[in-house]
Amino acid sequence: MATARAVAALAIFLMVALSASHMASSLRPGADGLGVCRASGYLPGQSGNCEKRPGLLRGRFEKGKDGGGPSECDNAYHSDEEKVVALSTGWFSNMARCGHQIKISANGNSVYAKVVDECDSVHGCDDEHNFEPPCDNNIVDASPAVWNALGLDQSLGMVDITWSEEEPKMATARAAASMTMFLVAALSASRMASSLRLGAGGLGVCRASGYLPGRSGNCEKSNDPDCCEDGKEYPQYRCSPPVTASTKAVLTLNSFEKGKDGGGPSECDNAYHSDEEKVVALSTGWFSNMARCGHRIKISANGNSVYAKVVDECDSVHGCDDEHNFEPPCDNNIVDASPAVWDALGLDQSVGMVDITWSEE
């Protein structure tokens, strides 16, 4: 009965979300109306070989253009003739909108475009992002074909629009029914998440979205981390296994103190944390764009349990750079915990990783 009620609640939420129109306003100018979505931190700029955008055009998805690498959703490039877009990190929602057709309206015209990429609102100022700053949080980054279909002057570079998730020539009820069927199937599927680093299978629909070329550097080794190797490729994940009442994961050891292997300050509070604090970082999918910041999760292993506070992301997409201690991206089922968490669970820190379960109690 509880499962049926949960499915019904999720279906209602989806129907409301599908019918909502999302306002996207000019990015680089400080537009108002962003509500409670505030900056999570500030990225220090770093100049480099930045491919200049012709006429300040926001989005080019062709190889060698200002879009950087291949699109996140399909690991492919797209012609300027295709109607495709990238959405800000929050709207991209860990690839949840990949392949969706969104309706964009401006200048008295409307056009449908396919979501193929993320306009990264967290990372930037590096080669992967064409040495451009992170996107603002209300961006629809569109190909030239979208601009042309809307009758817009590409030299403007940015225009106020509205967008919504309305599938072309499809009844809303039918779309909602399809989504409900998908949820029922997903909720009834097995949710076993096993250890990634130990090479176990069973990751379900959460597959690697790409591969990061390794680059070695000054890797701080106080907690015996895996350091990046030149030429090696590391999988990247935008998703994590589904969260259940007893989510299986891998516990890894991390210091959140300044100058240790945790890298910069924690994402949630822009602060460092003592090894005596019970704090954790979660893989990108579970971190869910900071949605779990400050949450206390229950971690169980070795016949013991402990509560720990979520303060950071264990980045499953980026790595092999100074910000990430020249370590590879995290796997998608990681709870990266402080020494205090390991001690409370009675675990041997020299092991480095242990199978655990966790829940949001």
From TrEMBL:
It holds the Pfam family KWL1. InterPro entries: Kiwellin-like, RlpA-like_sf. SUPFAM superfamilies: Barwin-like endoglucanases (SSF50685). GO terms for cellular component: extracellular region. Keywords: Secreted, Signal. Belongs to the kiwellin family. This is Ripening-related protein 5. It comes from Urochloa decumbens. The lineage of its organism: Eukaryota, Viridiplantae, Streptophyta, Embryophyta, Tracheophyta.
